[in-house]
Amino acid sequence: MNHLLTVADAVATHARLHPHKLGARDSRRSLTFLQWHERATRLSAGLRELGLAKGDRVALLAYNCVEWMEMYAALARAGLVAVPINFRLTAPEIAYIAEHCEARAFIVQDDLLDRVTPLREELKTIAPRGWIHFSTAVPQAATPSGWQGYEALIGSVSPAALAAEVEDVRPADPCALMYTSGTTGRPKGAVRSHEGNTLIALATALEMGFTRHDTALLVMPMCHANSLYFSHTFTHLGATCVIDDRKSFDPEALLATLARERVTFTSLVPTHYIMMLALPAEVKARHDVGAVEKLMISSAPARRDTKLAILQHFRNGRLYELYGSTEAGWVTLLRPEEQIDRLGTVGREWAGSGAIRLLDAQGREVADGEVGELYSRTPYVFDGYWKNPEKTAEAFRGAWCSVGDMALRDADGYITLVDRKSNMIISGGENVYPSEVESILGTHPMIKDVAVIGVPHDKWGEAVEAVVVLHEGQATTEQEILQWCRSRMAGYKRPQAIRFVAETEMPRTATGKILHRVLRDRLAAQSHA
To answer: Which residue numbers delimit the AMP-dependent synthetase/ligase domain (predicted)?
Structure first.
């Protein structure tokens, strides 16, 4: 039987090879590889004692904390499927994901219980004992009535459950369902296999030269593919992962952590770098970041001055920029020596990642310098969308996968992203799909039509803005609509501004579809007039 190391196998391996080495930590507690393995093993057994079986989905809702590392390893060991949920989502958005994946258990951090507790009656697939709570408070908060305590589950697992044979987990078995914001108004669950996640970890280590001597700082949300992929990379190597568990970004605290933990690598979005580099010189001088050897910047375009400032401050650091997706994994990489000479591109394909094609609407390869839809063929591509064969079929042309991004390639093979087929907005590193926000705004009784676009923002890269057509005879204010949005969508999705236009001012195709790009260009021209 074929077997490929899962992240649980990797933890177990390093628990044997160097049991007392620091494996993972946050600001509250640390885990050696042996402690990590023992706690993940007990959590895995405890979940099986609750009646969960291989293939069952387990929803996870938490801010960044070291428990994520335990949960990912425990679920992998048991053959359970992790469903990480973005902590920024509202209760209805959380309910949709938990229902859609038919979760059998739900593990929730104490600070987020208020989002989930009102949903308990409607989430029918969760097992009666499948509501699990953990506390990151010091001292830990008491377990609420009707919930299983995470620590109690780990501490009270029976000897029989620990000794029970674990069903073999195969490479092609699902490891995680990563829900991405949907271009049709609903998120889609991208099925990631153990094989895919292990291969992307190995490809990352190979291309970027990581070793077991590295220390990674994970700042991006642990529910995101970025932190999932990088955490698996360092776990497989037996390196150390430090989780930034602050609930809001603190640029000076980040510098202090980089210095104190002697971090050699971190992955950030441009907004993080801009905020950090904007600190006063005397503040930055307090923290020696000389241990940092590699830096990743991703999720949004970075300006030349930003990159130069990064390289100046991190004197020993080499800067990388990547483009990828939850579905395809890493697709392109702009390497350190290319950062300035190839500014504006996202580089060329990763070593070992496969190949890239740019296709027109008929599936024909476009010439260099022409815009086409970007397709990649990677060994770690996702297995399709959960319960959505139609969208899965749309994502593939044979073995080639696309998430709808439009790009062009120059004669040397460097890729420049031109637009997004789905008009996705990236605000502070978070993906926002206009159609999802539009579908919610469209339920407002006064709104007849709406287009959501991204507008340039110095801090967040892009800000979400809604262009609204009201029903005839209706009148409302920007503030009223902004307030109406507060309880209906996550903060990063909510429009920062509302523009009211007449129906005739909304640019459309001959078939009536709104031309988002034309609208963006028009509004940009007006703002500069």
So the answer is: 13-386
